[in-house]
Amino acid sequence: MARRLAGDLLAIATHNPGKLVEIAALIKPFGYAAKSAGELGVAEPEETGSTFEANAGLKALAVAKASSLPALADDSGLVVPALGGAPGIYSARWAGPAKDFALAMRRVETELAGSGDRRGIFVAVLALAWPDGHVEEFRGEVEGSLVFPPRGLRGFGYDPIFLPNGSSETFGEMDPEKKHRVSHRALAFEKLAAACFGKAAR
Asked: Annotated catalytic, 159?
C-alpha cells in the first residue's frame, strides 16, 4: 500500500515556472501549498537516470532530503515513435541551455521530415519522496499527433505541437483548466492522489 501524505506543504522539485504552476494547481484542491526548489534554495540534481521514473525519483529524493519536506517531482517529455522515442527523457535538453522550446519544436519538425508517422506520446512520471528516503512513483500518458506549425500560446514546452487524440485543440491552444483535467501530468496525479492523498483527483 502506498504511503499517505501528511501535512500541508509540498516541496516541488523544479525550477520550471510553467511546471510549478501546473503542479500547484493540481495539489491546491487537496489543501496543499507548493514551494519550488528554487524558493527553498535547493538546486535540482543532475538527471542521470535512463528512464522518466529514475529521473523523477532522484529529483524528488534529493529535494526532500535537502528541504526536510515531502517533495514532489515530475519528469516528463515527448516521445515520438518515428524518432525512436526521442526526444523522450532528453526533451528539455533539446531546448538547449536557454530552454528555447521553439528551437526544440523546429528540431522535431526537421527530424520528422519525410516521415508520414506523426504520432506523439506525452509521458509524465510523478515521484513523491519523503526525507527518510521513501519514494512513490506514478505514470501518466496521453497519445496524440504532432502538428506543424505550432498552434497556441498557452502551456509550455512542446504543448503547441501536440494534438491529443479526440481533440481539435493542441495543448498550446487548450484552456488551462481543461488541460489540467486531461494532460499526462493530470493522469499521473490522479493515481498519486488516490494512493497518497486518500482521495480521487477528479
From this structure: no
For residue 95, which of 117, 116, 78, 119 has the smallest C-alpha distance? 78
Q: How many domains does the chain have?
A: 1
pTM of the predicted protein model = 0.89
pLDDT tens digit sequence for 116-168: 999 999 999 999 999 999 999 999 999 999 999 999 998 889 999 999 999 99
- Per-residue cell: 146: 504532432
Q: Cell numbers 497518497 correspond to what residue?
A: 196
Which of 109-138 are b and which e, b meaning 16 or more Cβ less than 10 Å from the residue's Cβ?
A: eebbeeeeebebbbbbbbbbbbbeeebbbb
The DSSP element (H or E) to which 67 belongs, if any, is helix 52-67
- Give the burial class of 195: count Cβ atoms within 10 A of its Cβ; 0-12 exposed, 13-18 middle, 19 or more buried: middle
**Does some domain include residue 117?**
yes
Q: What is the pLDDT of residues 83-119, one digit of tens each?
A: 999 999 999 999 999 989 999 999 999 999 989 999 9
Q: How far apart are alpha carbons 14 and 35 in whole angstroms?
A: 9
Q: What are the backbone angles phi and psi of residue 61, rounded to the nearest 5°?
A: -65, -40
- The domain of 161 spans 9-197
- 74, 75, 117, 175: which one is catalytic? 75
Q: State the CATH number of the domain containing residue 112.
A: 3.90.950.10
